[in-house]
Amino acid sequence: MNLRAVHRLPFRLFRSVSASYWFLPTLLLILALAVAALTLFIDYRVDGWPRAVGWLTPDDAGAIRTLMGAIAGSMITVAGVAFSLTIAAFAHASGTFGPRLITNFMSDRGNQVTLGVFVATFAFCITVLVSTRGDGEEAFLPRLSVITALGLTLASLTVLIYFIHHVPEMLNISNILGQLGHNLQHHIAGLEEDGAGGGDVPPETGRRQAVNAPRSGYVQNVNRHALIELAAERGLVVRLACPQGGFAVQGRPLLTVAGENPLTEEDSDALAEVVALGDERTANQDIVFIIDQLVEVAVRALSPAVNDPFTAITAMNWAGSALCLLARKAPVRRVWRDEAGAARLIETPITFETMADHFLDNMRPHVHGSRAAGLRLLQVLRLIAGEPLTADQRRLVARHARAVHDGCATEIAHPRDMAAIAEERDNVLAALRQDRDADDDPALAL
Q1: The pTM is what?
Q2: Domain 203-278 in CATH: superfamily?
């Protein structure tokens, strides 16, 4: 089994294509050249019927060339302006919202289609221009191709209007955060629950060995199917030493395996190949990365240079919504089995506790100096407190609610502001005590 061909290269190619700015415009360019060849072929083979719409096209080869040259020149100029606006938008987004959002903008289909349509129209018109011949026995006036070029010009104008609307919409911070929030909820909803065939973690037997990372980089994707198949063939139980989104160091353990027989160099290479490593984190299997993007936007918004607590509040709203969704979910699957039911892959699952601690520990220190942000973070905790939490999860929420209050007390001087924050903390603790099992828990006392 050549897992290198099956997994790593296709994933990297998909990442490169989906996050690139060149693929879709290149595809539309090739399509335009193919359509130009088709219409020119029809013009060459069919004579007479296009004259029924002759009022749409000039009867002179020189006029057709002038028209095609004018359209082509206009399209390449507009394409340059659109590209410049896009680069300016990328620079603004990178400086304002964080450089890790650049991939989101690069993969935006609206920007790619806009550039592609302009370039495709340019290529089509140039092809028609060079195919047009003047008077004489070899005269060739491609009327259908000219009509098609006019149609592409109208389509380009429509795309230009859309692009002028799309650029400010793309830079609207509410839209950016909404896209991140929906993406986070989608990934949480897609997590497989433990009841899907996982079961308890089996005891480790046999020889424990490590598979080292062949290069340094972030774990972008783990092909579970290929890894389980490979482990079943060799009678191994595999654990991820470096989880999705983690940074693997060349020569350090990437996977740990347990089995009766020692690993050969071929086995180690094959196992390492099912883990795609790259220079940047991706949200493909790393939902914590999306939380980090929300936190990054919020932290930048609360910095003294920006001082925009309402953007931070929007980011906290989306993160809180995702945590509520995760709290309702059954335990996430951590054991993956082969067709015979034997455990082959053991992962560290995403849990409410790890996600909540990660978000709140990174977000909380930055709200201490802002009454609005501190109150909203406590309100988010009150929303989470209304979910069906376990005793440990309730204590976690209570601990963070007290930490928000205590941190704000060190930086907010006005008694009225602190009174509001103290009241919201008490509301969180009261919401946590709504469960009958929580009545006697001292960790939830006021």
Answers
A1: 0.82
A2: Pyrimidine nucleoside phosphorylase-like, C-terminal domain (3.90.1170.30)
